[in-house]
Design goal:
The protein is α+β, with helices and mostly antiparallel strands. It contains 2 helices and 10 strands. It has a single domain, classed as Alpha-Beta Barrel (Multidrug-efflux Transporter 1 Regulator Bmrr, Chain A), CATH 3.20.80.
Length: 164
């Protein structure tokens, strides 16, 4: 992935509720994230109150040295009142965020997403005048993404505020 990123849009990121599957990954197992999305499709019928507008991949870095992270593959829901057993619910957003459009041209997409996230943190963030407001990064998949061909556009979302 090139260090060249499209300029992000800084805009409001409303409070959003997500229900899905969560698993810890390390450098050697990151290739298995795609399987989480397959597993999510198998349990999607159990998720109450889906809004049908977007799916989210939420990454929470645990150790940058070993590239250990917790990852949630989930769908947007209207509330977190009924999270089925075996799934997790998370509230994200509720402030400003940097939205980076990312074009995907087919699988595997993990390296493209990981490279773009790396560039966001190594290149864009230090020079941006912003700082992160959350300990997670977000992949937002909407109608512009084709999950069968792994093509189209997604948004990489980083909650931010102006650096003080």
């Amino acid at each position: 992935m090139s260090e060249k990123l499209p300029k992000p849009q800084i805009r409001d990121f409303p409070t959003t509720y997500v229900v899905g599957l969560e698993r810890r990954f390390e450098r050697e197992t990151l290739v298995d994230i795609g399987r989480m999305w397959t597993a999510l499709r198998e349990v999607a019928g159990e998720i109450e109150n889906p809004t049908g507008t977007a799916a989210f991949g939420i990454s929470q870095m645990r150790d940058r040295q070993t590239l250990t992270l917790d990852y949630i593959a989930g769908v947007e829901v209207s509330d977190l009142d009924h999270v089925p057993e075996g799934l997790v619910g998370r509230e994200i957003g509720g402030g400003q965020a940097a939205f980076f459009p990312l074009k995907l041209t087919g699988g595997p997409i993990g390296e493209v997403i990981g490279g773009a996230m790396g560039a966001i943190w190594r290149v864009w963030m230090p020079a941006s005048g912003f700082e992160a407001t959350a300990d997670y990064d977000i992949e937002r998949y909407d109608y512009r993404f084709n999950p069968k061909s792994l093509t189209g556009y997604i948004e990489l979302v980083v909650p931010v505020k102006p650096r003080s």
